Amino acid sequence: MSREEKVWDLEWIKSVIPHRYPFLLVDRVLEIESGQRIVAIKNVTVGEGIFTGHFPGHAVLPGVFLVEGMAQTGGILLLHDDPDRANKLLYFMSVDRARFRRPVVPGDQVRYEVEVLRRRANHCKLSGKAIVDGQVAAEAVCTSAMIDR
Fold it and tell me: How far, CA to CA in Å, does 39 sit from each of 60, 122, 147, 148?
């Protein structure tokens, strides 16, 4: 399928995946190649509750949030064109090769780039990167299972 050239906003994202504030970690989708890859962004702001305790006076976005953001981005890729998506959920099965390369702080914009490595009926393996200012901040390979709600 050809690359679609448009921007998908927050309301559209909420129509695809069930996550909501404060745990929705994707603000906008920039590119989707159905069944292959997706690019999305997250604007990191100081008002996010996690920064109250991680770390006071030196705010750093926890690495697990970057992995979750990659997973949510992958979920959007897997569900966006499924007509039955309202009745589906994706669960983590594994997170492999997670690497954290640089801190992400308030004011950063995270660019998630996620691609499908392998897809079977109800299982999918995705490779993701979280990029800030052209540098990889985190990367991981995630396996998910799709289940009925």
Answer: 23, 22, 24, 26
Residue 80 a catalytic site member: no
Phi then psi for 136, rounded to 5 degrees? Answer: -70, 120
pLDDT digits (tens, 9 = 90+) for 80-108: 999 999 999 999 999 999 999 999 999 99
Amino acid at 43: N
DSSP-derived secondary structure for 49-94 = GGGGTSSTTS----HHHHHHHHHHHHHHHHHTT-TTGGGEEEEEEE
Amino acid 5: pLDDT? 52
What are the φ/ψ torsions at residue 9 (nearest 5 degrees)? Answer: -90, 180
What's the chain's average pLDDT?
A: 94
Are the CB atoms for 37 and 84 separated by under 8 Å?
no
Pick the catalytic residue from 54, 58, 80, 123. Answer: 54
Count the domains in the chain. Answer: 1
CATH number at residue 110: 3.10.129.10
